[in-house]
Amino acid sequence: MGDGHVKQEDLIWLKRQLQHEKLKSKLLISLSQDPLAEGLDDWVQVTDLLKTFDCRIAFCGHGHRLSLLNFNGIPGIMGRPLLTAKSTIPGYNIVKLRNDSVLFFNKELSAHLGKPVIMLNYLKADTLSKITISPKPDYSINQVYTNRKIVAEWSDTASIFSGACLINDTILVYGNSLGWVKAINARSRRIIWQTHIQGPVYSTPVTSGGILVLGSIDGSVIGLNALNGKQVWTVNTGSPVLAEGIVEDGYVYIGGGDQGFYKIEVQTGNVIWQFTGIDGLIQGKPAISGSSVVFGAWDRHLYCLDKKTGSLRWKWNNGSPQKLYSPGNIFPICSGDRVFIVAPDNYMTAININTGKEIWRTNRHQVRESMGASPDGSLIYAKLMNDTVIAVSATENFPKTVWNVDAGFGYEHNPCPVMATNDLVIAATRSGMLVSIDPKTKRIIWKYKAGNSSVNKVVVDQHQTFWFTMIEGTIFGINSINDN
Questions:
Q1: Which of 9, 71, 86, 313 has the lowest CB atom count within 10 Å?
Q2: What is the CATH number of the domain that holds 298?
Q3: DSSP letter, residue 228
């Protein structure tokens, strides 16, 4: 689940197309799946661009209700669904365009067309005067909390759907939506190298022994030389690889799309084993505990494999036949003899990692897929769908909430993992905000709104600088400032 997004390169392309001389005398009409409003993270940039070229009307779907809207001053009409709650008869819309107006009809099968349900003169300036516009992104919170410092900020030429891999605290490696994998000096922002793979890149790179490992949408797991970006090896999985791997003792464990789960020797690319007993895409990151590796898939199941042989130890599901509730895009947390997950069914679950049996399971808090753990593993953190970050005991045999903090971020569904150090818990949102919480005092230390799109992932270096990428194509480094 996520907000809509128009990629940066697509906005550049659109502007270039609209600048063509042959289009200057044409009437511009926009058609899109998403409404050009809140829910599309870069709706302001999109509508500002369309208004520059005098867009007169925008048609959209997605909301499943016939309605007249105001897209930042552009008249918008949302079409009806095929079936509605008020009628069992399928239907559709018919649109008639005139020189100065549009007529929107509701047509049901075998019924007469009837009168238009929406009549709009798109040449009149006051057409939308009584229809509210979505509130524009508000960055005023950045003036409220000043005890943080932006140590680095830069923008890519494309959107970014992967997190960044931090190498030796100096190099950030990430992939963008055009298929470029880039290594950037974190402080100087100088590009060290860039390599093109089949894009866009959704897989966050991981590193071991001078080799970077990530997946590509052409169905490959790829090993790159971390010094120069040259390809060292490739493993063909036959399915787009969106997952992030985990490395241990020179091996990477990674989901190979919907075709299997792999253990690969990082230096050589040799496949040690492949587990094929899945029936859905693996999108998240696995977790390792002792001799076990745990991962989820969009087939309803959480899997636990023997790390050495790849054999199945157990698999678990939540009892629902609904695949949309699957633990498909999760980052499991292992602590002691337990593995913890949160999933789209809004439950947090603790499972015995040795047996696969539930220890406890609760929907007391409206969790989604965003969680993390304290460095000592004693607390499990989760970001809720409504303002709150919670800490739950990792050792009790029941779901004991240790603390909860109202972080004030509103409705939330971004799966970005919660990042935690001994001193700070960082939760990142769908609207580009980071919230920093002191786990000892349960006090918000700072907030920072970096943009208006989802934060992909947050990583921390030895200087306690938090680095993160955003879907809108930006990369940031942020430090706390001691307020004593």
A1: 86
A2: 2.130.10.10
A3: T
